Records
---
Amino acid sequence: MKKFVHKRAMLLMMSGLLLAAGCSGNSGGGSGTSGGEGGETEGLTKIQVFKSHMGVGSIPDSSNPHVQYVAEHTGVEYELITPPPGSEPAEYINMMIASDDLPDIMRPIGGVEQTLIQQGGALPLDDLLPEHAPNVWNSIPEEAWDIVRSSSEDGKIYYVPKVFLIPERSPLIRQDWVEAVGHDMPETVDDYVELLKAFRDEDPNGNGKADELPTTGREFGRWMDHLFAIYGVAMWEGYPEWDVYDGEIQYAGITENMRAAIEFMRMLYEEKLLDNETFLNKGDVWQAKINNNLVGSWYHMPANVRDRLAAMRTQAPDAYIAAMPLPQAEGYEGFVTVKSMGEPEWMIPKAAEANAIASLKLLDFFYNPEHDEFGRYGIEGMHYEMGENGRKVILPPEDSRPLRLGMRNLTTAEDMELRIEETFPEEDWQMVKDMYEVVEQDAKRIAGDGLPASVYQGFPDIQSHKLFQETMTRIIIGERPIEAFDDYVAQWKASGGDTVTERVQEWYEKVK
Amino acid sequence: MAELSADRTSGSGTKETDRSERPAPRKPGNRYVENVRKHWMLYVMILPGILFYIIFKYIPLAGSVIAFQNFQIFNGIFGSPWVGLDNFKFIFTYDDFYNVLRNTALIALYQLVFGFPAPIILALLFNEVRLMLAKRTLQSLFYLPHFLSWVVVGGVVFELLSNQGFVNAIREWFGYGPILYMQESRFFRTIVVISAIWKEVGWGTIIYLAAISSIDPSQYEAAVVDGANKWKQVIYITLPALFPTILILFLLNIGNFLELGFDQMFNLLTPMTYSVGDIIETYVYRAGVLQGQYSVTTAIGVFQSVIGFTLLWIFNRLARKSEQGLW
């Protein structure tokens, strides 16, 4: 008889679990250590580092000059582990956990940090950080450490948080298109709609075809936060966040603001102002549409427009991107969501305790101001080259170019200015700096910044925003009436949303 | 096996004398040992298969106990607290579960009604192609999609049905506006069933073609003499001869009734079609693999297996009444 009793996926998972159970006795880290604890001079400690979203590139081996440079300065040789681009990092990380193959230090994804913390799988860092990673300890603001403490029941520090002190994402618009159709930057929602209509009808890309997509987003409603932001919806890459509405912290996905935003987008969709393929756009398709001068208004990171601009300019030499100030919607206070601290960045699994000091030493290397320049540029010829005016120019990522580990995730306005000057050609500096100046005006740090994923415990569908995504997309494409939103709100509350909201409000009382 | 071969070797002579000449009734244990010694090569050949089932099917079955635990991955099976039937209670009181179950059952039903007969019909058609070269070429062309992964096929389906895709190009030709089929829930199940048939139908014909080729040609010759045309030959000779094969494949299929295959659905599903296409596998992926809710998703898996086993048992009993079942 065949496999009638069970399904493949579950089997895979369960054999993994069994292995995990079988091997849970071994306590050492995954990697072999060649040197002793104190043996910095005679041997190197090998540390496995897991970091996702690294983009394209090859995995550096131990002969890589970047690895060797770091090893010379720290006595720690890093071994980079990263899921291939385009794969699901949360799946990768859960497989690592299930097979008891955790790295020495890792960047948790998808709320996995709470699994580790709650089940005793994470190492508390309160005592280790000040001693072994002083640069990390001192450069991260106390406020951020407090948020980290609030995310565990025992109030200990289980991870190093990401800190981003400036807005990272912004509504972007083709300034050259705005000029081509003879409009000004929109001030109200009505202006914005008129502008989008002009994008649709007046051929701003000048190719004689009506192929313009005035604005667009991605599948699951991701990366179209600008349309939500106009109505004051706290949104992070398409996931509703938690912010104060009517005096209390709430899930933005069920607010009146969200209803208004959805109604607005439904109109845009019907008028073909919102790309009708929005919810079918995979990331690469979305990017291709922008790069090929088809899109007028979108949402992304100003710091990352370089490759996009280069692609646009092959067909439209005058392509110019600006940040769009949020158009005013009557009765709503629009803002661009900022999450600036508290998101987990690095944690050390308990199983890797033996290598914890070496891991922290590695981490501290990157937070040490002395190594700032190395951290930004890497190795000459491999990661950057010397430009004409004696400036270092970072080379674009390629499949064959080795990736380099960076562990510092602390960005101040100063950092960003440097980063712009490093990665962009001089003539574009002002353009990018202007973008940050504009978005700064609309940016607001939300109340739910740093909210631990543990509040979702037991309600996977609330955590995955499934109900929201289904309702939002179907109303926008016109398959359901806007009234369906009210049913969804009731259903969301009944299926666990109320419980989660209570937990979030308790958490907020603690950190406020 | 043992008895059969024993009978054959000592089959001559009268049975009475045979029995009385035996020195003593041998113990069954001895007979097996002897049988193994005699046919050791056959036993060695099935060994990898048996090991496969033990290691990858039976041992992991024990892991199903986590359905009755609040499984904590860092504490393992032995360190996690027992919660009795709590996980099952959670599933059956969970709103969305019935939607997921309904989708799974409905799509499974469509797959069975439309997907199961497809390779039989195609095999009968192949069988009528007389030109060997054409037959071989056609068969290969139909096998081909089986070797493509759903990631590829899913991409092709999305592309064909996109705004600028093939189907909408034809619509435009006739003066109709484009329809984004992939995001409209009313088309979703049809797309699922058709794409599954397209991908697997050729592969499914292999067993039927083998069964057809073992039909004695003299039956057809006799039928022709009696004046039966092609159609009648199919109805009265080929199909009846295929029936046992069809029945066995049907039973194997019914045991997997609720298992639609994660790959296909995952690659075709969008939030717009959750209401009609979110099935057990995609739910388990979201909750189990992405969010580490191992216990609840294992409980769902156990439930799924129980349904599959029940269906198999029922249909096997029915099959035994007419023909033969699996056991």
---
Amino acid sequence: MNTTTLEVFKRLRELLAGTDKTTQTILRILAAVFGGYALTSSMLAALVLLLPWTKADALFFSVLFPPFFYTGALLWAFGASTAQRAWRNLLVVTFSCEFLALAAAWAR
Amino acid sequence: MNQSKEKRSFTRGMSELHTWGGLVFGWLLFVIFFTGTLAVFEQELTHWMQPNVRISEVEPVQALASAEKKLRQLSPKADTWMIALPQQRHQDLEITWIKGKRAVEKHLNPQSGAIIKAPETEGGHFLAHFHFELHSGEGGLWLVTLASIVMLAALVSGIAIRRQVFKDFFRLHWRKNWLNVHTMTGVFTLPFVLLITYTGLTVTFLMLLPVVPQVLYGSSWKGPQYVAAKNFERPRANLPGELVPLTRLLPIAEAELGKGKISFIRISNPGDQQAVVTFFRTIDDTVVAISNRAVFDGVTGELLGSQTTWSKYVHIYRSLVGLHIARFGGYPIAWLYFAAGLISCIMIAAGLIFFTIKCRSRYARNSQMAQWMYRAIEGLNITAITGIIIACIAYLWANRLLPFDIKERADAEITAFFSVWLIMLFHAFLRPPLRAWIEQLRIAAGLCIGLPALNALTTNVGLFPAIARNDWMTASVDLTAASLGILLALTAWRISLKERNNETLLEQQSSLGSSSANFPIERTPLQ
């Protein structure tokens, strides 16, 4: 790794670790919109792959959930004590669901 | 840095979300809720906007015979024919034929089968569409979806930050200020807003989120309707085959689906040996918004099959859709949704206005930047609230005022809608805020109250002739517009009283020699 990449990486880290109000709010909004999308998608994928039902049933059952998942993510992003914690929580759940989904797909 | 200072409480987070999320999306939400509320009467608005389509009721079989004759005559070689039979809230007969990518739609008189030269209009359909797509396709759909999620979150966070609202509501601790109007209407419409936002979101997410179809179906995905319904369609044989008379199939279809309940018929490959005729049942008397159907071989007339039961989850999902579109209960339910929708609009508007007042008292003496921001917020409030009301009513005015036979009349009406809205945006920023509020409310009131007069002057379906002919679908649009106009006029009058009070207050203050910095900003006009 050369020094420029390291420099960029360091700057980015500083930015993401920002504790001032503007950075926090921007990070929270990003977490709500994109983290929410990722969370909703991965939870749905895990849900439909784990359900031992016909595809059609799983599809129309899964439709009932995205409003809860996305709204939950939004509330979580703004309710967490810091934006970094919000991101961490969202990412942990997203990747766990992703992992569950992959495991379920592999087991099928 | 003190770490504990950086961390904040859950309530503060919720408060921030409610305030800023509510502000940024509040404008959009008001627009969505208002146009959605009008869209409850989509069919009535369309009826009103087609003043020369006034037809007396006929038997379905006669309407079908007229439609069939016209389609055979006009487009024997089309890929698909579609026939929308007259219904209670949709009296004309519509035929559509599709050839390649071109679709032609005509309105017929179901009795004579003659083509009615109706002026082109999108009717209430435009408002219904605008309320979830904002006239801008998938981008608009995403924006509405995000706004709806913020709406749900705002409900939760609103309850979290002001837990005592329920107590206040039931103990009738009602005070006359904007915050109270906001919270009280909020509590009152909470069940409705939850229902309408949740059901709306289930619809848009099925359209937007690719993950479930991708995971389950991959590239074989064609759309939810292909999963929910049995498929009877067949590829074209390219051999000529005489289409069975549709009127002969109608009684069999009615036996299958219910007498007088057929609302729509689709004929695939008419004139081909593989023709398929599908009869769809109306959804106007059921919460489950999915059409039962009976499918026939188009040449032999044999019943290929029917579908009147649906899988449990399709049933649940389409019930949610039914609860959103509010077609299941006739007029009582439609009016209930309309009233609840209007109160929700008041809730959103009161929240926006309360924020502005708070903002004004807090930032009014602050930096230039803060004042600019506050001015922009106030301008956008006016544009989003009174501006959209004026734009909607101007859409109806445009329908009556545009020349009958100009090209692309339907688009011209929509252009009028957006141009008027844009003018209201400029107006809101050019005039002092309070003047802008009063003037726009007066314009809206004038246009609403003037609508029956305009209708009576430009058509022969004015209020009295319509009532005389028992045409309540037209008359109630006039009457509702006029009543809303009176409400708007009263609001304008109330605010102009406040304005006058304020002026006298100012005069008293200046005569007492006090500087304007001592002016009690909390007692600002709209409070």
---
Amino acid sequence: MIARAARLPTRAARGRAGGKRWGSGWHAYLFIAPSLLGVLAFLLLPMVIVLVLSLFDWELLSAPEFVGLDNYRRLAADGEAWHSLGVTAGYVLLCIPLQTVLALALAMLLNQRIRGVRFYRSLFVIPWMATPIVLGLIWNWIFDPRDGALNTALALVGITGPDWLSDADWALPAVALVSVWQHTGYNMLFFLAGLQGIPKELHDAAATDGATSAQRFWRVTLPLLNPTMFFVTVTNLIGAFQVFDTVYAMTDGGPSRSTEVLNFRIFQTAFKEFDFGYAATLSALLFAVIFLVTLAQVRFFGKRTTYDLS
Amino acid sequence: MFRLLDSGAPLPSLSPRIRWAGALLGAALLATGPTLTGCSSGEGGGADKVTLTYRLWDDQQKVGYEKVMAAFEKANPGIDVTIELLPYDQYWTKLTADVVAGTAPDVFWMTPTQFPEFVTKGVLSQVQVDPAKYHQTVVGSFTHEGKLYGVPKDWGIVGLLYNKDLFKQAGVEMPDKLTWTADGTGTLLDTARKLTVDEAGKHPGEPGFDPGKVKTYGFASWNHYQTQWMNWVSSNGGKLVDKPFGKYVFNDPASVRALQFGVDLVNKHHVSPPATQTNPPTGKVTDMFKAGQIAMFPANNALLPFVAPEATFEVGVALMPEGPSGRAVNLNGLAEAVYAKSEHPQEAMKLAAYLGTEEPQKIMADGGYAFPALSGLSQGYVDYWKSKKVDVSPFVEESEGTTFPLPITTGFTGFETKLNQIFNEMYLGKLSPQEAADQAVAAGNATLQ
Amino acid sequence: MTKRILLYAALAAGALISVFPYLLVVLTALKTQAQLSSTPPWLPGWPPTTDNLAKMLGGDFPRYVLNTALMTALLTAGQLVFTTFAAYAFARLRFKGREILFWLYVATMMVPSAVTMIPLFLIMRELDLVNTWYGLLAPYILGTPYGIFLMRQFFKSLPSGLEEAARIDGAGSMTILLRVLLPLCRPALGTLAIITVISSWNSFLWPLIITSGDDTRVITVAIATLKDGIGVDYHLMMAGSLIALAPMVAVFIFFQKHIVRSVVLTGLK
């Protein structure tokens, strides 16, 4: 490895980087060809079909019928759908900031020389490794207002816990909490890998210049983690906007529709109400929202300067 | 690779782009004509050997059906049967996808609540069996416009499971007949009160009783339509739907009084656990009964395999309480449905018809899996459970009295979640029974097609 | 020193919260049905029983574990290769339509899979792949947008002049990828391997929809069948989940060795 590193580019060679368009041309397409085939046939085509289906009335078990923009007119007047979008936004706000910050903090902690660091890393990732359907059952036990572990623990310190999943104010935070629990360690993995890629010398240099550890975090670590942060926030937001499993296992959208996120509504519409055309319309709405949120992130991260190592 | 234009999608006079999209869709979506492949495509050994697919969701019953299918294959050397087991929660999603693609199994289990959706869309074949031989509530659950679209398979009925040890400890005898009325008189409430004890040993109604610290509850009243409030409504002279494939009507005065009774057991009489612990989807009434925290628990007999073996107490079965209009209990039937687009319609029909005969139904009954739909075979089931020290004969007695099916209307599957949510609020005491029933009936009738 | 103690205290508390729910799985898997009813979930049943594990291992479950292992191995192999290829092209090669194509990949993650599943299932029917291993693997074995996005970000974070000298030496893109870039990507590859293995191992909806026979049954589906319409075999489900988790922990420990600072990169000034 080190021998190979010795043959790596000199500073002079790197200076010319980006000047010439190395690798332009057909062989780039060869590299993406296999994935392109898969994406086109198995991901993009189904997605396009779903978007097209939003113009149809289709009860799944009978033939689809073209209805133009009818479904969209219905959507405009559908209070339930907009309520669901609001719930989804609330869910995203509850879990994304928390799980991102926690994951980063955890990664920084576990990026140090600590006894048993691998052991800890493994423990933190277990929530994401375990079979999801089983965990839904377990969390329902934990949230039981009377005999559940959570309220039993709270009672020990003199707090009377809420009714969690039966309380319209607490059900959504409870579901979000499970997501944070499940994804913090998982996201930690990406930050860990990102942190490992930051040359130690940069930290050392900053320290020599008298930067405090807070300054080093904001001026060195965070900017250099930008590519990782971008990936984590974009994919986490895409995932959080489509939350379904935990809601299905824990609340069925209740109580009083306080956890009825959009993807749950979509599933109900498609497979319980057999109204696939309208479910496709709701999916188009969800797609549009996620698309805009992603676009905003592309803008945001694009503006921020990254350290160019060259 | 992808058939684009051979579908004949019904989209005339549209812009070319939309027509293209339509053609694409049509090709992808319409399951017209036989499909290229499917679960049912026979790849069996011999030249004219046919492989049928049979789908179910119960892993315990699968064991019984392996025996049944072996017997069928022996009698029909030209037919092989593959059993497919699917998780219940995803059974319907998968079946829907299969029906859309034309790859549904040849014979599969069907429930009364899903039946209207599938039969009205032409997914099911009419079956030729003599309806008179089966339990009439089951037959009624799978009849559409006077024709039977499923071979009656079995039924489960709601009975009152009770914890004999708790009765002994409290020195209470199970009355010969439990009764209830909406105003709170009757032996059910009396018995439940005696069995409900808080940590200080006090019963409901006694001075100092603390409903927040109950150790054992006398009864389980909770938001579960099949085993709970639908039974109260029916035995109080109320009605769920005006007729099969009709409208919901359970907001009439008799029904609302019955709902009030169910809620009062929890919030007024305190003989049942609070709704925060029992509301679906996370309600854990079964677990509480198994843990000895509940003395009387209305449940479908199909729950017995999950409760009775390894129970830490002696499980008794009693008749459901009688209401002001007598006893009326839910009897939930299952049917063997035949896929209308099966590639082997004759063989599939042969299998379904066979499953309705005595030999297989007796195997399932004697194995203690379910009460067979075919009349006259219940004894095998009773004997099986007698060997496990549970006397299930009250279930049989109930099935011979007044029974009712779950509401048979299209749209129930979509309505179910809303219904549960609204009634969760009712059991929590946040909606009055009248408000809850009005909201639920309005929401339900909005889903009718 | 107090800082050190605080650090360990925080880690221990976090680890406890992380593991506690899973601890309940383990405890439940080792309980009899009677113990399940008589003890709270967070206390062990005494004496612990291995009956549930034995019952699961004695039935068809090991066969489903093998099916799942095969599926996971194939998906991981395919994804590691094709994902890396695509990510490399998106990050470090220039070609027409690169950004549009990349964001098109990402866009496919934005529509719920429960609805795209129906068209995808119909496509599979047209390709005659329903109820086959090919159908099970096809949508994911050629690389996923998620993995490509991940690797692209890591490739992008490498210094921009790395390829240059190799180019001058006449190396092609493939050589550069294998000899120059990949050795620098061990943390990323380790991460990709972990998430690919574990998400394949836990995949549920697609295996359930595309196949229905025992020949292709995977463990998640097998565990789900223990939850009936009416009752739940908690202790068996938990036992199944426990059996399912063990190999994943091993895989994780194996691959996380690679999530360490790359020697080469540190040596770079």
